[in-house]
Amino acid sequence: MAPSGLKKVKDFFSKYVAEDKYDSTTQVLMGAGSGWFTGFLAMRVAKTTAFAVGGGLILLQLATESGVVKINWKKIDKVKKLDDHKNEWIEEEKEFRKKLMDFFTNNTPFSMGFIGGFLIGMSF
C-alpha cells in the first residue's frame, strides 16, 4: 500500500474511531458493524477467488495434457529469480504491520468489536 494510502486509512480511522470522540459502546458497535461487513466480503471474495483459481488450474492442466498449451519451464525459473524489490516490500509490510498493531492496541473497544464482527461475517 502506498504511503498516501496509509495516510488516508489513518485519517479515516482517526476521524471516525478516535478514542476520545465516542464512548466505548459506540466504538464496539462501529467495530462490529465494520468487521461483519469486512468478514462477509472477505468470505465472498475468497469463495469466488478459490473457484476461479481452481477452475483455471483444471483448465490449464487439461490444455497442457491435450497439447494445446506448452509451458516453458525455463522462463518460469527466470521469473522466480527476479526478486530485486523484495526487501523494499518487506520493510513496507513491517511498517504497516506496526502501525496497524499500534492502532488496534490504542483502540481496544473498536478492535474487539471488529474482530468479533469479522468472525460473524465470515460465518455467513
First-to-last CA distance = 28 Å
Number of strands: 0
Low-confidence stretches: none
Q: Identify the overall geometry.
A: elongated
Q: Kindly report the average pLDDT value.
A: 79
Q: From the helix content, strand content and strand pairing, which structural class follows? A: mainly alpha
Following the backbone from N to C, one meets helices and strands in this order, namely: HHHHH
Radius of gyration, in angstroms, nearest whole number: 21 Å
| Helix residue percentage | over 70%
Report strand %.
under 5%
Largest β sheet strand count, sense and barrel closure: none
Compute the number of helices. 5
InterPro entries: FUN14
Pfam families: FUN14 (PF04930)
Family: Belongs to the FUN14 family.
Transmembrane segments: 103-122
